[in-house]
């Protein structure tokens, strides 16, 4: 598995297995176990996914040594404060059954981000977290956090897919030393992405699937990428992307698909911010 090096020297597998919306405990546990069996060594969860305990069980049952795995979780909005991070992180560790996580992210750019970041810096120094970062932060907020704190975020996990390519934002993050990580690389199937004529044409050219073409497109940009499936055959397929390369013509064709806006919602929408503030999970 190809890895990329974060700004603190920690290496992260470029392909990760996402667990968003796998909420049924037995299904989540099995999915993580099967993903690790397929070859994934990078597993991503979050407090708000409500599956940390099941993910932890899947990790424990995999039989793979802990040091060979890269585990990410995220702090939900209600816990984004100094005290909130300290207390909720310990609960996350307990649910995961781990002594440390490899990457901890602030899940959304709301609440007391600065207090939360200070707590995360301290937890990193204490060896409880190998890398710290953010998720869904606009570039200006990411740079603001980086410039006024001791530790520059190692990662910003954001939406990146053929319809929301974020090329300028990716360049700006990398110039700050922040590694972009893509969630929803398949746009959760929106806009009939798997039936897109341009992507199908490229896929047929290499005898690959549309999903494999999208993942390859991201990996060639050195973007950490998360994909999710509960089907073992798809897990294996999504990992089999290191035996072909896209041409400049392929990349230019994919560039024409960019719509330049989220396929889901805007983090600048006041109603969405109010909804996140009201979503109390008690985690």
TrEMBL record:
Gene3D superfamilies xrefs: NADP-dependent oxidoreductase domain
Keywords: NADP, Oxidoreductase
Keyword Oxidoreductase annotated: yes
Pfam families, per database record: Aldo_ket_red
NADP-dependent oxidoreductase domain segment(s): 15-258
Family that this chain belongs to: Belongs to the aldo/keto reductase family.
Protein name: 2,5-diketo-D-gluconic acid reductase
Protein's organism: Listeria seeligeri
